[in-house]
């Protein structure tokens, strides 16, 4: 699967660091906190009064049965849904809602439960779109291309190539993503999110529908991202084995409420959590 | 009552009448959209084609006469017999059903899983094809269509309304075309029949199921393809009715296909999926257009009928993107 | 043999992302350009009597429509917003050009055309605003509002056509380096060269815009708008810039259509809704989201009726009306056929042909 790489290149991508979103928050301090957030659609309550925080540098898992409000929670964090109540504090700035383009500009990137790649574009172009917020040349420079716009584009191309190396997808660089198998599409989507050099990476079921081997690969990438780039990660996952292995802290949702929060082994002993997963009736 | 107020009422009534006509065309759009998710741009041309075929059958025209003459150097035009209106209508209906069947076989079948916008563009292609085909088959000259629906102003109504005006004012009564009244009545019957069909029959239920979810409908044993043939046949029938009404009113010619353009704002207003929306949208556009022409038209130089409906629909959309009767869309990722 | 890639290695990212990555293709392109820019004008200049037909009936319509198709392809092919208002935007370009030409007689015609594009870009943004709220064919219908409203406006307010009795606009004579390029005395070769130069320059710009950040943000908006927004692509910027750029091209196309190609125009006749459909067909047939597609589509729609007329009317002696009906029918049928077999149009067929050529004469 690995395309042969010159050693010099390999070293270069190992040295590659994500520096686009420096925020001066030390490892272990709170990067993002949601407080008393509630979200409803019409009369349907998706999230009820949830609070939790994500610390810089950790891998935070959000788990819960289907329909617990996990994806809605991610949507609130990156500004796609706007909660009716509560506040979101990101990098010390408190607000009642995020705007999705703002969230992207301030270093929140994500992947999606049902792959949301740009089907008509190649792997390379898909990952390049991840850097849109980092590219600054205006339309007039772009129209001329040769000169500043091209120079900028090539710099970003180099960064993207590091990510392509990192994810080991060199061989599909120019393939339209629509033609790729599911597992690779998931990986390209991770690449697109990584290309933004995010401070906070949201992963919505990164391993759904994968076989054991693919799950192991994906877990390794997630741990490597966290380790090599120091990226804070919040992920939704159903595979408890994976969650227990790779996450630092876990928050458990059920019917839009928080029923547990803490380190994996502690949460797995929590009676409410066990009930929720075994389907004890709510009344 | 003052003449001004009576003019106002007359405008509203005429607006309602033309609104019914718009609804009739819009109905064809809604039917196809609901059952197959296709925005059928060719609906107007289908009406034209139906009307052309009807006239052709009725007057005994030889199909493709121009082409045959051009190739073989002959001079044929008509068979020399005329068909009664009812027979010609039945014949046209057969043609429209055959058209639906062929279209499903040759086109729809192959476009099943394409994006809606590709399907939309395919129907623009269909509109062109059908227009060329219709002209080639029956000739592009303006034809008069007469299936026995009375037309012309109603003297009775004129006399009745004349008495409403205040004494001594020079008011001559309202003008209402009898044809419009028939059209309105027929449209109402058609809507009731279609609603009943889709609510109370087995096929109607299958139709609604397909509209909701193709795959789920297929999984319970509904044949997608026969449903499509049925829907396009019904749309062909609605097009025929619209073609008869508009054709009797203003002759059968190319401009008849442009009524589709009139119906589009109606759809935006009423939402693509709602039959009542098509009716009420049509009435709103019909009345709005006539009133605007009467009151706003003179201020800006007139002839605003062409775009006024669009602007109304557009402004409306900005506030309610899902249309009058559409449901609010919650986007998911 | 033409597409020999073997040994054509790329060692820099710049070499990897150029427009014609294969050396032989690059050479072929520049050779074609040399013919178009040097040999063709010389030939047209040498045979003035025959050149009028070629320029007026084939070359100019092709060049002008290519410009328009480029514009619509940016909006529809790259950004995914279907527009049926092309005719209206062409009219804006034409009338802006007319007003500029008559108000500032000393202004160079090239500047007039570019400024007309800029005016149209503004109008395009205005009519593009609904795209922020509505999608798909709702938007397509909304753009019809632009078509009908704009044509009505240019028809109704005499100021736009300088109160001329016929309601027509007529292009006055303008020269470049002393050679007439508009008006009745213009030399066919000069009009051709002017149109070609403009098209070449702006096709290059279109290529630049579509390969960088802006192009990617358009395509992201087209393929998955929600994901694009979450990646930080502002729908406002992406969609409105697509409307602006697209209208800029269509406006310039309209200006060229009127000033260089037709010479005189009446709005309802020259810029009706059929023009909107023609442009859309060009983009579909040529290939959505392809610069090359714009040229192929324009070429097809311009040449096809001429071809049919030559074969059916001149060859078989059929009446003109019958030929026209056939033409409409075949174009419509072709649209459907292409959408079924190759939704990416002629450009994709060309790409596939190239793939085959790479292996020729020894396929697997």
From TrEMBL, chain B:
UniProt membrane topology term: Multi-pass membrane protein
Q: Which InterPro entries match?
A: ABC_transp_permease (IPR001851), BCAA_transport_permease (IPR052157)
Question: GO: which molecular function terms?
Answer: transmembrane transporter activity
Task: Enumerate the UniProt keywords alphabetically.
Answer: Amino-acid transport, Cell membrane, Membrane, Transmembrane, Transmembrane helix, Transport
GO CC terms in record: plasma membrane
Indicate the segments annotated as coiled coil, or none if absent.
none
- The source's domain of life comes to Bacteria
The transmembrane segments are 12-33, 45-65, 85-104, 116-134, 181-201, 222-246, 266-287, 294-319
Give the matching CDD domains: TM_PBP1_LivH_like (cd06582)
Query: Where does it reside?
Result: Cell membrane
Q: One Pfam family, please name it.
A: BPD_transp_2
Its BP terms in the Gene Ontology are:
amino acid transport
Q: Which PANTHER family match?
A: ABC TRANSPORTER PERMEASE PROTEIN, BRANCHED-CHAIN AMINO ACID TRANSPORT SYSTEM PERMEASE PROTEIN LIVH
Name of this chain's protein: Branched-chain amino acid ABC transporter permease
Q: Which organism is it from?
A: Zhengella mangrovi
TrEMBL record, chain C:
Compartment(s) where it occurs, according to its Swiss-Prot or TrEMBL record: Cell membrane
Q: What is this protein called?
A: Branched-chain amino acid ABC transporter permease
Q: Where is the signal peptide?
A: none
Q: How does it sit in the membrane?
A: Multi-pass membrane protein
Instruction: Supply one GO CC term from the record.
Output: plasma membrane
Q: Which InterPro entries match?
A: ABC_transp_permease, LivM-like
Asked whether the UniProt record includes Plastid among its keywords, one would answer no
Q: Which GO terms describe its molecular function?
A: branched-chain amino acid transmembrane transporter activity
The alphabetical list of record keywords is: Cell membrane, Membrane, Transmembrane, Transmembrane helix
User: Which superkingdom is the protein from?
Assistant: Bacteria
Membrane-spanning intervals of the chain: 27-47, 53-75, 82-101, 107-129, 136-154, 189-206, 248-267, 279-308, 328-350
């Amino acid at each position: 699967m690995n395309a042969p790489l010159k050693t010099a290149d390999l070293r270069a991508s190992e040295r590659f660091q994500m520096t686009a979103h420096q925020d001066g928050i030390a490892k272990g301090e709170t990067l993002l906190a949601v407080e008393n957030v509630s979200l409803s659609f019409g009369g349907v309550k998706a999230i009820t009064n949830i609070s939790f925080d994500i610390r810089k540098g950790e891998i935070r898992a959000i788990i819960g049965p289907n329909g617990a409000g996990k994806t809605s929670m991610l949507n609130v964090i990156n500004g796609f849904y706007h909660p009716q109540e509560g506040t979101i504090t990101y990098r010390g700035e408190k607000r009642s809602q995020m705007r999705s383009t703002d969230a992207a500009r301030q270093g929140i990137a994500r992947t999606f439960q049902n792959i949301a790649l740009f089907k008509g574009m190649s792997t390379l172009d898909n990952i390049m779109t991840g850097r849109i917020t980092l590219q600054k040349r205006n339309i007039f420079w772009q129209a001329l291309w040769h000169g500043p716009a091209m120079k900028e584009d090539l710099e970003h191309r180099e960064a993207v190539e590091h990510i392509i190396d990192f994810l080991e997808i060199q061989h599909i660089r120019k393939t339209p993503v629509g033609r790729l198998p599911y597992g690779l599409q998931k990986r390209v989507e991770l690449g697109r999110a990584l290309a933004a050099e995010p401070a906070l990476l949201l992963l919505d079921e990164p391993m759904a529908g994968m076989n054991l081997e693919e799950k192991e690969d994906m877990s390794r990438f997630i741990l490597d991202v966290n380790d090599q780039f120091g990226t804070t990660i919040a992920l939704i996952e159903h595979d408890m084995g994976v969650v227990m292995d790779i996450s630092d802290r876990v928050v458990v949702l059920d019917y839009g409420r928080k029923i547990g929060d803490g380190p994996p082994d502690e949460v797995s002993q929590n009676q409410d959590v066990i009930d929720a997963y075994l389907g004890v009736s709510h009344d | 009552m003052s003449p001004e107020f009576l003019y106002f009422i007359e405008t509203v009534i005429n607006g309602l009448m033309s609104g019914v006509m718009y609804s009739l065309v819009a109905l064809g759009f809604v039917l196809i959209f609901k059952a197959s998710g296709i925005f059928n741009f060719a609906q107007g041309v289908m009406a034209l084609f139906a009307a052309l075929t009807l006239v052709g059958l009725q007057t005994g025209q030889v199909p493709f006469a121009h082409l045959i003459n051009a190739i073989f150097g002959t001079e044929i035009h008509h068979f020399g017999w005329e068909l009664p209106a009812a027979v010609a209508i039945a014949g046209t209906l057969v043609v429209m059903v055959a058209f639906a069947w062929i279209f499903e076989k040759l086109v729809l079948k192959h476009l099943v899983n394409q994006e809606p916008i590709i399907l939309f563009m395919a129907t623009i292609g269909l509109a062109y094809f059908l227009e060329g085909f219709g002209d080639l088959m029956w000739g592009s000259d303006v034809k008069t269509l007469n299936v026995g629906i009375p037309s012309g102003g109603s003297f009775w109504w004129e006399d009745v309304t004349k008495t409403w005006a205040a004494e001594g004012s020079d008011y001559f009564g309202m003008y209402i075309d009898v044809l419009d009244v028939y059209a309105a009545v027929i449209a109402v019957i058609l809507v009731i029949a279609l609603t009943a069909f889709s609510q109370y029959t087995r096929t109607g239920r299958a139709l609604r199921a397909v509209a909701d979810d193709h795959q789920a409908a297929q999984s319970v044993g509904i044949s997608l393809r026969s449903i499509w043939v049925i829907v396009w046949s019904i749309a062909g029938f609605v097009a025929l009715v619209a073609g008869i009404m508009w054709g009797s009113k203003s002759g059968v010619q190319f401009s008849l296909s442009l009524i589709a353009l009139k119906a589009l704002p109606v759809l935006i207003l009423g939402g693509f999926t709602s039959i009542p929306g098509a009716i009420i949208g049509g009435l709103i556009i019909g009345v709005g257009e006539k009133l605007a022409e009467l009151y706003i038209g003179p201020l800006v130089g007139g002839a605003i009928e062409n775009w006024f409906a669009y602007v109304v629909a557009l402004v409306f959309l900005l506030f309610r993107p899902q249309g009058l009767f559409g449901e609010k869309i919650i986007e998911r990722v | 043999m033409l597409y020999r890639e073997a040994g054509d290695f790329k060692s820099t990212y710049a070499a990897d992302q150029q427009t014609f990555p294969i050396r032989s293709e690059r050479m072929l392109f520049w050779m074609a350009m040399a013919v178009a820019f040097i040999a063709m004008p010389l030939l047209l200049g040498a045979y003035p009597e025959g050149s009028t037909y070629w320029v007026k009936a084939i070359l100019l319509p092709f060049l002008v429509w290519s410009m328009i198709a480029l514009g619509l392809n940016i909006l529809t092919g790259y950004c995914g917003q279907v527009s049926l208002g092309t005719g209206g935007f062409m009219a804006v370009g034409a009338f802006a050009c007319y007003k500029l030409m008559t108000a500032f007689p000393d202004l160079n015609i090239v500047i007039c055309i570019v400024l007309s594009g800029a005016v149209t870009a503004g109008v395009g943004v205005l009519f593009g605003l609904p795209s922020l709220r509505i999608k798909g064919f709702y938007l397509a219908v909304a753009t019809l509002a632009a078509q009908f409203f704009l044509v009505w406006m240019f028809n109704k307010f005499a100021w736009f056509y300088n109160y001329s009795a016929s309601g027509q606009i007529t292009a006055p004579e303008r020269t470049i380096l002393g050679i007439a390029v508009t008006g009745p005395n213009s030399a066919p070769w000069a009009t051709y060269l002017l149109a070609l130069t403009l098209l070449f320059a702006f096709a290059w710009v279109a290529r630049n815009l579509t390969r960088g950040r802006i192009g990617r943000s358009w395509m992201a908006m087209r393929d998955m708008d929600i994901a694009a927004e979450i990646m930080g692509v502002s729908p406002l910027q992406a969609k409105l810039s697509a409307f602006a750029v697209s209208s800029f091209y269509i406006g310039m196309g309209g200006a060229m259509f009127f000033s260089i190609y037709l010479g005189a125009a009446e709005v309802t006749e020259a810029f009706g809704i059929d023009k909107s459909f023609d442009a859309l067909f060009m983009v579909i047939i040529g290939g959505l989201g392809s610069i090359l597609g714009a040229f192929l589509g324009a070429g097809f729609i311009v040449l096809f009726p001429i071809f049919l007329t030559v074969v059916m009317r001149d060859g078989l002696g059929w009446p003109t009306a019958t030929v026209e009906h056939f033409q409409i029918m075949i174009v419509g049928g072709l649209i459907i056929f292409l959408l079924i077999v190759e939704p990416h149009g002629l450009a994709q067929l060309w790409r596939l042909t190239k793939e085959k050529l790479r292996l020729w004469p020894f396929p697997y």
